[in-house]
Fold this sequence. Notes:
By secondary structure, this protein is of the alpha/beta class. It has a domain of 133 residues: Nucleotidyltransferase, domain 5 (2-Layer Sandwich). Helix 1 runs antiparallel to helix 4 and helix 2 crosses helix 8. The chain is globular, with a radius of gyration of 21 Å. It is built from nine helices and six strands, in the order H-H-H-H-E-E-E-E-H-E-H-E-H-H-H. 41% of the residues lie in helices and 14% in strands. Strands 1, 2, 3, 4, 5 and 6 form a six-stranded mixed β-sheet that branches.
Amino acid sequence: MDRREPYPSDLSDEAWELIRPVIGAWKAKHRSVSGHDGGYAMREIVNVLLYQARTGCQWRYLPHDLPPKSAVYYYFGLWRDDGTAETIHDLLRWQAREIRKRRENPTAVVLDSQTVRASANAPKETTGWDPGKKSPGRKRGIATDVIGLVIAVLVVAASVHDNATGITLLDKAAASAPTVTKAWADAGFKEAVVEHGTRLGIDVEIVQREPGARGFTPQPKRWVAEQTLGTLMLHRRLARNYETRPASSVAWIHWSMTDVMLRRLTRTTTPTWRDPPRPAPDTPDESERR
């Protein structure tokens, strides 16, 4: 089969080398009984996952020059359930912190949550109404380090109170990074979160909104997590919660952050609609027209 034309979301050679050892080790442990390695290269499977995260297209509308849904979703589900997607994400996070001259694990985190509408295929028992944001759907909770990298994430019904979200995030953050001793959160997280943090040895500080402030105003410390949520929303798969299972939503957050970190580590960017179009190869330039 001829090599296809690249998509902007494709892995560069340098980016692939950063995650190839993890995928290679996984593949070595999951040999088929017949010894067949499968019909698609692992790099191409990851390319499709990053394409999906960035474009948000329906599975059945994947371009014909990419591996089909049946193959890609098979690996997506396996890597979601056995923790491979999170392992890749965490490995890249450690490297992204290292290039910023920081230790492997942080000592401080920032908590925040975001409510997004869910699609029609989301079971009712996994969705709800967020009275604070006056919006239905699911709630994403994240804990980031002070440079905006995700330390912990969860997805719950929008009706779940921020206290419960914050408590779970602290538990996850403490498990992922036992070095954490400080956390900042917005006013939606109440005293129960502060008390739970104390039991974990984490000093939780509630950052209050400036009196009289209107509209969106970045808050000290907290803005980092808000910026991360905004960056994640550039991945159209996360513009709405399309997943049947909340675990799949968590996996897409990990893959989206994997995309962000790969580009930071390799110092590349994704072309946007603002980038000037490339001239057609057969179009003469101005000097040839004269």
